[in-house]
Amino acid sequence: MSETAQSDTMLRVEGVSKSFGGLQASRDISMSVPKGKITSLIGPNGAGKTTLFALITGFHKPDAGKVSFLGEDITGMAPQDIAMRGMIRTFQIVQPFAGQSVRENIAVGAHLHIRSRDAALAKAEEVARKVGLGDRLDMDAAALTVAGRKRLEVARALATDPKLILFDEVLAGLNPSEIRDVIPVIRAIRDEGVTILLIEHVMQAVMSLSEHTWVLNQGELIAQGPPAEVVGDPLVIEAYLGKGMAERIARQRMTAGGAHA
Ligand SMILES: Nc1ncnc2c1ncn2[C@@H]1O[C@H](COP(=O)(O)OP(=O)(O)OP(=O)(O)O)[C@@H](O)[C@H]1O
């Protein structure tokens, strides 16, 4: 690997495996995330996406393999230590601290680096504006809608001043117009220089946001490449729709093409 290629890589996963009892949730996974880009991780339910996030961010310890962040081996480090280095993840289920305002909830993230309460609250306000929560700062966070809670989760992560954010399904549970509103927020975070790795089931978002996608199925990486190419990969189609589907779809296309000829 050349030095340039090495320094363009923010995150590198090499041969990572993890089992829970008899179930192998991650099997010899190797992947990388380039600096300054949005990369996506897709795969059917139970493929092992969230487990991989947990292995990368220190919430699980790999049975084998190595995770490097900005060239440093972080395998087995605690989540807090990884967050201090600039890598933060979000969670699928957002649990705001009830009885606390949106501002105070976001300030929790800011406290990773900022000790002063006033400075952390000021940082929270700045971040809230970026994610579209600027008008809800004084609201009880527990009263936020699903879409508001998702923005809160993004804001809390952003308030830690990360270099890399791992978004775990930030668009899940949102309606199409809410999704359309959040996509530019994610893009703006990348434009400010934060690298992003996202798990997403909303393919419209995967296609429009990410340049490169990795596909997991049953704990294994089965494909990678530009999203538009990956969705046509027979292995990916079969992972989502079942065995034999790729061939059936191809046959239907040929028949439809023939009918139009
Ligand atoms: N702590 C755990 N203990 C036991 N099994 C687990 C644990 N965490 C995950 N698993 C199992 O590992 C497999 C992968 O789960 P994971 O949540 O990583 O998949 P996923 O791709 O994120 O799924 P989804 O898209 O539904 O969120 C599943 O079979 C799950 O039941």
TrEMBL record:
InterPro entries documented for this protein: AAA+_ATPase, ABC_AA/LPS_Transport, ABC_transporter-like_ATP-bd, BCA_ABC_TP_C, P-loop_NTPase
Record-level Gene Ontology MF annotations: ATP binding; ATP hydrolysis activity; L-isoleucine transmembrane transporter activity; L-phenylalanine transmembrane transporter activity; L-valine transmembrane transporter activity
Superkingdom in the source lineage: Bacteria
Keyword Nucleotide-binding: yes
Gene Ontology biological-process annotations: D-alanine transmembrane transport; L-alanine transport; L-isoleucine import across plasma membrane; L-valine import across plasma membrane
Coiled-coil region(s): none
Record domain ABC transporter: where: 11-243
Gene3D superfamilies in the record: P-loop containing nucleotide triphosphate hydrolases
Keyword terms, alphabetized: ATP-binding, Nucleotide-binding, Transport
CC per GO annotation: plasma membrane
Transmembrane portions of the chain: none
Protein name: Amino acid/amide ABC transporter ATP-binding protein 1, HAAT family
Species assigned in the record: Stappia indica
